[in-house]
UniProtKB/TrEMBL annotation, chains A, B:
Cofactor list: Zn(2+)
Name listed for the protein in its UniProt record: Ferric uptake regulation protein
Manner of cofactor binding, per the entry note: Binds 1 zinc ion per subunit.
Gene: fur
UniProt main location, coarse: cytoplasm
Gene3D superfamilies documented for this protein: 3.30.1490.190, Winged helix-like DNA-binding domain superfamily/Winged helix DNA-binding domain
Binding site for Zn(2+): C96, C99, C137, C140
UniProt-listed InterPro entries: FUR (IPR002481), Fur_C (IPR043135), WH-like_DNA-bd_sf (IPR036388), WH_DNA-bd_sf (IPR036390)
Keywords, ordered alphabetically: Cytoplasm, DNA-binding, Iron, Metal-binding, Repressor, Transcription, Transcription regulation, Zinc
Length: 155, 155
DNA sequence: ATGAAATCTTGAAACATTCCAGATTACGTG
DNA sequence: CACGTAATCTGGAATGTTTCAAGATTTCAT
C-alpha cells in the first residue's frame, strides 16, 4: 500500500528497508502477474525466471515480504498457503470448496460489512479480522451432481 | 444444534444417522468438556478413556462428525486444526498470535456484524462466512517486550 | 443369529514447511 | 573502489500433520 503497483520492485524493497536480491525482485514481479500463488507455483515461476532457486529461499523471501507488509498470506483451511501483494485495501477472499479457486471480495460492499479492527475482547488486542467466504464456483456447481473435474488450484 | 448439549452422545449419533461406536461416543463426550481441541489432544483424551485408539480412527471420527454437522473444524493459519461441538450459533474465533490461545466470539455483537450467507458473488454460491480475529491475549501483551513464555496451544 | 457394509487397527506414505551448516551476496565503510 | 560483516541463499535432511492402503473387527438391519 505504501507503493503504487507499478513501482520498481527494487525501489519497493529499499523503501521497506530490505536488501535487494534476485529472488526478492523476481518474487515481487511474479506476484504482480500471478494474483494468488502458492509456494510451489511461485517457486516454479522464480526458477523459470532466475534458474536455480532453493525451496528455502522461496519460503524465506515470502516470510520477509510478508513481515514487511508488502505481501499478504492467505491460508484457507486444508490448503497450502497462498500469497498476494498487499495493496492495503483489506479485501477478503472467496474460496471454492470444490476446486480451491480463490477470488478477491471487496470489503464493505453491499451486505458485506467491513469488520472493525483495533478492538478489544477478552482482554485481547485485535489487529486483524480475517474473513473467508466458502462456497462453490460456477463450474463446481455445474458438476456438483456429476463430479468429474478433479479439484485444481486455480487462481 | 439439532441436539441440546446434554443429549446422550449415542442418541445424537443415531439422530444424525451415524453408527454408534466407542470412539465416536467418547469423542462427543470429550468435545463437550474440552472446548477447542486439536487432533493430538483429543487422541490423548480418547486413549485415556478407551485404551487403544488409532490415530486414523481419531481423524475418521472427526471427519464423520464434521461432515454430519455435529462438529466444527477450525483451522487457524499455521496451526493444526481444532475441533469444537457445532452449536449452530455461528460464532467466530479470536486467536492469539503469540500463544495460539483460541476463544469464541459471539456473532453480531456490538461492532461485530454477523455476516450474510447464502449470497452469490462471482457466480459463487456462498454457504459460509468464516471470520478469524487475530491479536494478542493479555499474557502475550505483557510479555511482548520480554518474550519468555514459549507459545503454547491453550484452549 | 447372520451377513454385508461401515468402521477401526497397523504401518507406511505424502505433503507443506522448517531446521541446519556452509557458501555466497549485498551494501555501508574506509 | 576494495573490504568486512551480516544478511541471504543453497542443498540436504528432518519435522509434524494428515492421508492412504489392506486387512481385521464391529455395527446394525434382516
Amino acid at each position: 500500500m505504501p507503493f503504487p503497483l507499478d513501482t520498481e520492485p527494487a525501489t519497493v524493497l529499499r523503501g521497506a528497508g530490505l536488501r535487494v536480491t534476485g529472488p526478492r525482485v523476481a518474487a515481487l514481479a511474479e506476484l504482480r502477474e500471478a494474483g494468488h500463488v502458492d509456494v510451489d507455483s511461485l517457486a516454479r515461476r522464480l526458477r523459470a525466471r532466475l534458474g536455480r532457486v532453493s525451496t528455502q529461499a522461496v519460503y524465506d523471501v515470502l516470510r520477509v515480504l510478508t513481515d514487511a507488509g508488502l505481501v499478504r498470506r492467505i491460508e484457507p483451511a486444508g490448503a497450502p498457503a497462498r500469497y498476494e501483494l498487499d495493496g492495503g485495501d483489506n479485501h477478503h477472499h472467496l474460496v471454492c470448496r470444490g476446486c480451491g479457486t480463490l477470488v478477491d471480495v471487496p470489503c464493505a460492499t453491499g451486505i458485506r460489512p467491513c469488520l472493525e479492527t483495533e478492538t478489544t475482547d477478552h482482554g485481547f488486542v485485535v489487529d486483524e479480522a480475517e474473513v473467508i467466504y466458502w462456497g462453490l464456483c460456477p463450474n463446481c456447481q455445474a458438476s456438483a451432481l456429476t463430479p468429474n473435474s478433479a479439484p485444481t488450484q486455480q487462481d
